[in-house]
Write a structure and sequence with these properties.
399 residues; alpha+beta; 5-stranded mixed sheet; 13 helices; 64% helix; elongated
């Protein structure tokens, strides 16, 4: 009995550690509610170890035996709810509550059946298997496929299978004639040891997916311009560079550079608050007009960029004119009613093999030409005659 009690204590401590870990995650993650429910799941499940440890010494073993069952199943239901929030595959509380009530009612119904029989073992383990299999399906239904997502799915599926295996293990190894005999049975020692391993594995995988989410969110925020909501220069460059390598049968794409006309005058005359509103409104215009696959960014100040993948120069020119017309139609708070914001655009199609830096230089020259030719217009850059591979030395003066 001492070995089983020790393992129950270990399981309790492990569950408390994971409870604390998820509470910590809740303070850092945008998925705060999901982490809190997972913490609650481990906290509730840990009560099973307390109940099982009391069973051999209690004059009311049925109460604590059923309490242990309800604690584990309740903890699993809470984890299903928390992971459902995290993976955006939610479940209604009435359904979860019905599963818990049905499981506890089933345990009460079979409590007086002969233990260590296939019938008792099957109905005892079935609710645990069902809830864990249901929880594992959440990961698949979410569509997320990172390493930690696959690891979590695998461990949840393995845990669900473990409860099926326990049906036969309880019969073969013997789980005791009564609930009080369970703690001193060989089956209890094996069950608690394997249970501890699965708790650690599944708990670490859950922490892994949530920590990864925190890291991804922090990285995404570091690449977003807070004022406009578009990518900043770094975020824009990192997302556009892979898109330049189109398949041979496709056009690499076209880059549009945009610059708000006389933006400094807006700031100096109407204040930076109005200038900020102009930036936000122009960003919304870009997002509304550009195609779904396009990438938009604020490169700095009043300069913006939009990359249109697999789009030729004539199509991009039409898009740029749409953006130019759209910003002119905007009535912006803080400006006189008759005042309108205009913008200039430089458009350059990407040559095959051309780097983003080179196409940005050509688009910038076209943008400069639009400014020089009166602003509030679209100018297109000529395609480069040749593309020089920057990795190959280009010696000036050699024949």
């Amino acid at each position: 009995m001492g070995g089983a009690i020790s393992l129950l204590a270990v399981n309790f401590i492990i569950a408390q550690i994971f409870t604390a870990a998820f509470l910590t995650i809740a303070t850092k993650s945008r998925q705060r509610r999901a982490a809190l429910w997972c913490a609650a799941g481990f906290a509730v499940a840990s009560l099973a170890a307390v109940c099982e440890a009391i069973v051999p010494f209690s004059s009311s073993p049925k109460f604590f035996a059923v309490g242990a069952f309800a604690s584990v199943l309740g903890g699993f239901c809470l984890l299903r709810f928390g992971l459902g929030l995290f993976y955006q595959v939610p479940v209604r509380w009435p359904l979860l509550g019905a599963c818990l009530v049905a499981g506890v009612a089933l345990d009460l119904a079979i409590y007086d059946l002969p233990r260590s029989t296939l019938r008792h073992a099957f109905f005892y383990q079935l609710p645990f298997f069902a809830v864990l299999a249901w929880t594992a399906s959440v990961v698949l239904r979410s569509g997320r496929r990172s390493f930690f997502d696959w690891l979590l799915f695998s461990l949840l599926a393995l845990s669900a299978s473990y409860y099926l295996i326990k049906i036969y293990a309880a019969v073969m190894a013997g789980s005791g004639a009564t609930a009080q005999d369970y703690v001193s049975s060989p089956f209890a020692l094996i069950s608690q040891a394997l249970g501890a391993m699965l708790i650690v594995g599944a708990g670490l995988a859950m922490l892994g997916v949530m920590v990864k989410d925190i890291i991804d969110d922090a990285q995404a925020r570091s690449e977003i311009d807070l004022l406009s909501g578009l990518y900043n220069r770094r975020g824009f460059m990192e997302r556009v560079t892979p898109l330049l390598h189109a398949r041979p049968s496709e056009t690499p794409g076209t880059l549009i550079l945009a610059d708000l006309d006389r933006f400094k005058l807006v700031n100096d005359t109407y204040g930076h608050h109005t200038g900020d509103e102009v930036i936000r409104r122009f960003a919304r215009v870009l997002m509304d007009v550009m195609p779904n696959r396009a990438v938009a960014g604020r490169l700095g100040g009043e300069e913006f960029a939009v990359f249109l993948p697999c789009t030729d120069l004539s199509e991009a020119r039409v898009v740029a004119h749409g953006m130019r017309a759209a910003i002119m139609s905007q009535q912006i708070a803080g400006l006189p009613e008759a005042a309108r914001i205009t913008s200039s655009f430089g458009v350059a199609a990407v040559g095959r093999g051309e780097t983003l830096d080179l196409v940005m230089q050509r688009a910038d020259k076209a943008l400069y030409a639009a400014k020089e030719n009166g602003r509030n217009r679209v100018e297109c850059a000529d395609m480069p005659m040749t593309i020089v591979n920057p990795a190959v030395p280009h010696w000036i003066g050699r024949h």
